[in-house]
Amino acid sequence: MDKKRSLFDENTQENGTGFSRRDMLKGVGSAMVAATLLGFPFLTQAETDTATGSPVIFTQFFIVSQAITEHQDLSPGMSARIFNAFYHGNPQFATQVTKLYGLLQPNQRAKQFQEVAKQNGLGDVLTSIITGWYTGTIKNGTDTILISYKDALMYRPVSDGLIVPTYCGNGPLWFTAPPPAAPMPEYMKEERLKATPDTVNTSKA
């Protein structure tokens, strides 16, 4: 009797098409990741390509990030940016993410997850992931890569009462939006309505 093959067996061919089921699943995963990231136009092509090129690892990274931050509403767009920076800055990152994912348990708190990761020699990479999410920056050798400023998780606890620290008067990148309309005093509105081209030209003479 032939040994039953796994759905994820790399050597399993699907109906003689020449594609393994693993390849087909990867293709479906890539399409799903790509569709998810369509709503984030700020992503570079490289960031999108890295996530869609490794859909399983990217999904595992996203789930690990949710577990260690204890935030289920993390942005897939920001996740893709952080993932890209780690993926290209650390040759072992993909393997480490898979190992971290394998350590996850149902209803596991972040502190417990962190302790288990340390016991398995993955404490540093897990700390770097949570640091990236909370500070919005990634350490890459001697360089620090800015991923996001206003969306860094460290600002969430006070987001209902304070804007993200910035020199902009109404929050980060406020100057990129049209300025709010300046209210005009009523007496100025009345004088403006009364003015005629002749009176305007006379006043300029």
From TrEMBL:
Disordered: annotated segments: 1-20
Biased composition (Polar residues): 9-18
Domain of life: Bacteria
Regions that span the bilayer: none
Name of the protein this chain belongs to: Dehydrogenase
Species annotation: Rouxiella badensis
